[in-house]
Write a structure and sequence with these properties.
Blueprint (H helix, E strand, L loop, with lengths): L5 H5 L4 H8 L3 H9 L6 H14 L5 H7 L5 E6 L5 H16 L3 E6 L4 H13 L5 E4 L6 H16 L4 E4 L10 E6 L1 H14 L5 E5 L5 H17 L8 E3 L4 H13 L6 E4 L2 H13 L9 E3 L16 E3 L2 H13 L8 E5 L2 E3 L13
Parallel strand pairs: 1-2, 1-3, 3-4, 4-5, 5-11, 6-7, 6-8, 8-9
Antiparallel strand pairs: 10-12
Helix pairs in contact: 2-3, 2-4, 6-13, 9-10, 11-12
């Protein structure tokens, strides 16, 4: 009669059982499963056959180490409550599921240290990709930090993806998925100028943020192209929130700034601006025209429906996943750019006769 080992009786296998079955040491089994050290093909084959024969990967953690668990990717952003980011997350999740991956979401609240800790955890767990989302301060320190992260992830078989962020230095193993941010702002402001507006109030985000910078640059470029002087007093800065739009309009009215149109840096900012204009007894677009940026779903439900720039956020998320998972981890940098377009609704009209 065949004698059963303690592990047979308990219904669990240990790394020593696998080593005995494969005829190797326990440390060799650990190396094969961890994938950190080179071993011969024949040794790897014997170990993995023993793993399967003994069902050693029945433990979920062991399955992940052995490569038999569900592969993961990470989606990292500052604020999970932002509507545009929510649509991007939806695209990431749907494409990850389609490709057999589990997507993990981390909201950092702008904490760089928390971001680094999460990325390191994903590297240790061999996530297939780490997707960083949203504008940032494009400094030398930032580029150096991202380059280190990209190299570290690539060395672990992962891939860094920057979504809606500027590219890094050439040769960095990173995938960059952007949308045409500045051109969208240019087209939007050009639409206002074509309607006859010459005093366009710009409600910007944080001046150091690359997304905010691109939208301001598009605003200024449209003025230059039309030969219109952009009054510096008509550029106010806050953040990308509804409260910021409300506060900046109140500030502009308190300062008696003369404007016939408002270009908000996001639809959320435009929503707050619309409320502040209504509170001041001003009608949109009869008294003041108003535009936003992002084309999030509620923009069409405002009163009036908002003219804005459509950004394909869900497509960005899908493309970020698909591109990252079909690339070699240590492949050189790759940069993809998606288009934007103006969606014309009822919030814009020519300036009233009093301003002509």
């Amino acid at each position: 009669m065949t004698r059963k080992t303690t592990s047979d009786i308990a219904g669990r296998r240990t790394i020593r059982d696998v080593a005995a079955r494969a005829g190797v040491s326990a440390s060799t089994v650990s190396r094969v499963l961890g994938g950190d050290y080179p071993v011969s093909t024949s040794t790897r084959t014997r170990v993995m056959r023993a793993v399967r024969d003994l069902d050693y990967v029945a433990d979920a953690r062991a399955k992940a180490i052995a490569g038999a668990g569900t592969p993961t990717l990470a989606f990292v952003l500052d604020d999970i409550t932002g509507p545009s980011f929510a649509h991007m997350a939806h695209g990431v999740e749907r494409e990850a599921t389609r490709l057999g991956h589990l997507s993990l979401v981390c909201s950092t609240d702008g904490d760089a240290e928390r971001q680094l800790e999460f990325i390191e955890m994903m590297r240790a767990q061999r996530a297939a990709a780490v997707i960083l989302v949203g504008g940032t301060a494009d400094t030398a320190e930032y580029r150096e930090r991202m380059a280190r992260i990209a190299d570290s992830l690539a060395s672990a078989g992962s891939r860094l993806v920057l979504c809606g962020r500027p590219p890094l230095d050439p040769g960095t193993p990173v995938t960059v998925i952007e949308y045409d941010n500045e051109s969208g702002a240019y087209a939007l402001c050009a639409h206002l100028l074509a309607q006859g507006h010459r005093r366009v109030l710009f409600l910007g985000g944080k001046p150091s943020n690359t997304t905010a910078q691109g939208r301001e640059q598009g605003y200024l470029a449209a003025h230059r192209a039309r030969g219109v002087t952009a009054d510096p007093a008509l550029r106010l800065f806050g953040d990308f929130t509804r409260d910021s739009g409300h506060r900046l309009i109140r500030q502009a009215l308190a300062q008696s700034l003369d404007f016939t149109a408002v270009m908000a840096s996001t639809d959320m900012v435009a929503s707050g601006a619309l409320t502040a204009l209504h509170e001041a007894g001003l009608s949109v677009p009869q008294d003041v025209s108003l535009v936003g940026y992002d084309d999030i779903p509620f923009a069409r439900d405002l009163n009036p429906p908002l003219t804005t720039v459509h950004v394909p956020y869900e497509d960005l998320g899908r493309l970020a996943v698909r591109t990252a998972l079909t690339r070699t981890p240590d492949a050189p940098d790759e940069h993809l750019l998606l288009g934007t377009h103006v969606v014309v609704r009822a919030s814009v009209a020519p300036p009233s006769e009093a301003h002509e």
